[in-house]
Amino acid sequence: MLPTTGPRGPLFGLAVSAGFVLLFVFGFLAWQSPPQLPQLPKSTTHVEMTVTNEGTAKLGIHEIIRQLYQPLKIAPDESSFSFIGEDLNLTSLTLPRDPRYTKQMGKDVLILDLETRPLESTEAFNHGLFDWRKLNHVSGGVFSHYIYSLIHGYDYKFVHAHEFEDRHATWIKPSALAQHIKNYKFIVFLDADATFRFQHLPLEWMFNYWQIKPEHSFTMALDPWDPEAPQYNSDRFNRTYTNTGFMVVQNNAHTMQILKDWHECPDDTRYKGCSEWKMPKFHEQSAFGEYIRYDYADYVKELQCAEANGFPGVEVSNCQGKYVRHYWFEKQKIKEDLQQNMMNAITLPIQRIFAENIGGIITEQKENVLPN
């Protein structure tokens, strides 16, 4: 990967306790509303939480997350999507005409995490030592992916795979995808250091924006490419690699064969010389770029790096992570992205209380005098 060329803007500190804040907003989770603003009760701002005799909250974290983001969610075929970027300017994006995906696909989509490493945070949790501030980027990325699946009703799996004996751990990707793709229309895979920029923006909207068609077995973003350093991120034909840290894999007639050829590539079964990429960078990504995509060009869709790779501060190829961010460096910023998304969802209903004076919490003082 190419190094980042500039810092990202300052973000607020990691001092918010997510559990406490979620409890605070329980009372705001009863509304059902269009995406613009949540419909909150106008009679009171009192917060209540009902518990069972055993002291267990009836409202689980799954439902809390879904209801928290419900007012923010964008419809799959919403004609436009607007957001405020790092430059604090408003940006609006428009879908192409006649979008293909008009309904949520729910459990037909799998969000897949794939690791050979155990989550460090789980060991800390089991010892009563869980602390958000100490969360590493792997757990931060995994939590972010899981929350995204809850928001939109997608299926989710965390696959803990055993490593190969003769090749790099990232070679587990083709076989894991092959084991699960038959049960889904789409699998969306992300590395632990990749994340969705907007938690409330569904995959279906992005699929429409990218114009993913039924024949596209794989959709991936290109890596950054610098004409001053062309030897990086390029195959033997000087063509830029696609990055396997974010993949949209569609279940169609060609997908299993592609996965088979990719999985067997380092055995030199079909592609002589592919064993070169058992260990050297970029492992399975290099093999895909050097061999697989040339035999299956009609079934691989390549996105610009700016769309689904990189992060703010990367100037090469404008890899700013417009929809999907991939933190090749500064990996702890995965947590900051998750925190920003969560705080935006939490503070929106609170802001509405003050904007609409719900519950009469704002009192106008017309005269600045002492009472009699």
From TrEMBL:
Domain of life: Eukaryota
GO annotations of cellular component type: Golgi membrane
Occurrences of domain Nucleotide-diphospho-sugar transferase (ranges): 169-299
Membrane spanning residue stretches: 12-31
Keywords for this protein: Glycosyltransferase, Membrane, Transferase, Transmembrane, Transmembrane helix
GO biological process, one term: protein N-linked glycosylation
GO molecular function: glycosyltransferase activity
This protein's record includes keyword Transmembrane: yes
Entry-linked InterPro entries: Glyco_trans_34, Nucl-diP-sugar_transferase, Nucleotide-diphossugar_trans
A Pfam match: Nucleotid_trans
Family (UniProt): Belongs to the glycosyltransferase 77 family. Belongs to the glycosyltransferase 34 family.
Name of the protein this chain belongs to: Nucleotide-diphospho-sugar transferase domain-containing protein
